[in-house]
Write a structure and sequence with these properties.
The chain is mostly beta strands. It has one helix and twelve strands. The mean pLDDT is about 90.
């Protein structure tokens, strides 16, 4: 597939979905826990394609993640969101995921390489392989899936009931987005 034309592109919030998957830890109490899927479309940033290379900057508002899990009733979904905000994210002003880097190629697949920080914590160098889904007239679609460990970013995985109920350290993030030329 051809690469988008030179220029600056912004994330189209109406055509972007960020999904975060959180997994229950296997233990005696795991039957009382649920794997959770959270959604958000609040992403800001840009991709700038020049003759000298391509830069990427993106910020995702984590405070507004919404639990999608169908097995939970509305009250339990609201409680899961409240616990995420108070026990994991803690402060709204730093409840963000930020990425800043450049695009490169890894074999036939494009890769965004740069620094990722979560909730104002540690920056880690990451390589995020992605797929360029379509390119057409000033717009392009891209998707990616990346797994990470919360503890790598100074985030302690959620536990309850004196540690008997736990979520895994591992989470997965999927982003489906369309970017439009500015």
């Amino acid at each position: 597939m051809e690469w988008p034309a030179l220029g600056r592109y912004a994330f189209d919030r109406d055509k972007t979905l960020v999904k975060v998957f959180i997994f229950k830890a296997p233990n005696l109490m795991s039957r009382f826990a649920h794997d959770l899927e959270l959604h958000n479309d609040l992403i800001d940033g840009s991709v700038e394609i020049t003759d000298d290379g391509t830069t990427v900057e993106a910020t995702v508002d984590l405070w507004n993640l919404r639990v999608i899990e169908q097995l939970l009733n509305p009250k339990d979904r609201a409680e899961a969101e409240r616990l995420m905000r108070t026990k994991i994210l803690k402060r709204r002003n730093v409840a963000k995921a930020r990425f800043k880097g450049r695009l490169a190629a890894e074999g036939d697949r494009p890769v965004a390489q740069g620094e990722l920080s979560l909730v104002g914590n540690r920056r880690r160098t990451v390589a995020l392989p992605f797929e360029l889904v379509s390119v057409e007239d000033g717009r392009f679609r891209a998707s990616l899936r990346h797994e990470l460990m919360q503890s790598d970013y100074g985030i302690k995985p959620f536990t309850a009931m004196m540690g008997l109920l736990k979520l895994q350290d591992r989470i997965a993030v999927e982003i489906e987005t369309e970017l439009k030329r500015l």
